[in-house]
Amino acid sequence: GAVVSQHPSRVICKSGTSVKIECRSLDFQATTMFWYRQFPKQSLMLMATSNEGSKATYEQGVEKDKFLINHASLTLSTLTVTSAHPEDSSFYICSARVPTGYNNEQFFGPGTRLTVL
Amino acid sequence: AQKVTQAQTEISVVEKEDVTLDCVYETRDTTYYLFWYKQPPSGELVFLIRRNSFDEQNEISGRYSWNFQKSTSSFNFTITASQVVDSAVYFCALTENNNDMRFGAGTRLTVKP
């Protein structure tokens, strides 16, 4: 099956710093990747849809200037949390959609746990 | 917009009991896909099953079985003879044709020895 990796798996940073999270599709090309956020004991909430070579589409209520998404290649999308604050502490999960042949399935990365002190 | 409801927030059973996790969905599309994922404490989502809207056949995989009923917009998941290792949060999810995935609130299953 298709494999999606995320790096780092865990990050702790000070308030005010920026953190970059990478999402890679290892054995397939993904024209579309998704970024989700999951607060403790809650569901996954879609933050944005990332399309290769174009601007990301953000869900209502998600600040695009705070959560910068770059999908520069068919195998890599990055999420940068700018000027992170404690309320940004969460579990961030990316997924990549296989273009054809998989019935619209998305493959999820293992997640990145962000803790902002 | 699509919507997924998992009314059971938490379920606790004793090992070897059968347990059914409910999932009800809403969509205006005729083409859609339904999923179940398991999320253990590590956080990584484990894919369990995918169903498209044109395939109403129930499925059995070992101790797991799924009941898809379009008439009631439900896609329920049953674990037979539950084990402690089944303890996790289970999410039901839905995608409409080529759109993003929407998750239910999740059901936390605890299986006690």
Present the secondary structure layout.
The complex is a heterodimer of chains A (about 120) and B (about 110).
Chain A: E1 4-7, E2 10-13, E3 19-25, E4 32-38, E5 45-51, E6 57-58, E7 67-73, E8 76-81, E9 90-97, E10 106-108, E11 112-116
Chain B: E1 3-5, E2 10-14, E3 19-21, E4 24-26, E5 32-39, E6 46-52, E7 59-61, E8 64-69, E9 74-79, E10 88-96, E11 101-103, E12 107-112
Parallel strand pairs in B: 2-12
Antiparallel strand pairs in B: 1-4, 3-9, 5-6, 5-10, 7-8, 8-9, 10-11, 10-12
Which word captures the global form of chain A? Answer: globular
Binned, the helix content of chain A reads under 10%
Helix content of chain B: under 10%
N-to-C CA distance of chain A: 37 Å
How confident is the prediction overall: mean pLDDT of chain B? 94
Q: Could you give a short account of the major beta sheet of chain A?
A: 7 strands, mixed
Oligomerization category of the chains in this entry: heterodimer
Would you mind describing this structure in some detail?
The complex is a heterodimer of chains A (117) and B (113). Chain A is 0% helix and 51% strand. Chain A is built from no helices and eleven strands. In chain A, the strands form two sheets. In chain A, strands 2, 4, 5, 6, 9, 10 and 11 form a seven-stranded mixed sheet that branches. Chain A has a four-stranded antiparallel sheet with strand order 1-3-8-7, with no helix packed on it. With 117 residues, chain A is mainly beta. The mean pLDDT of chain A is 92. In chain A, a hairpin with an 8-residue loop joins strand 9 and strand 10. By secondary structure, chain B is mostly beta strands. In chain B, strands 2, 5, 6, 10, 11 and 12 form a six-stranded mixed sheet that branches. A four-stranded antiparallel sheet of chain B has the order 3-9-8-7, with no helix packed on it. Chains A and B meet through strand 5, strand 9 and strand 10 of A and strand 5, strand 6 and strand 11 of B.
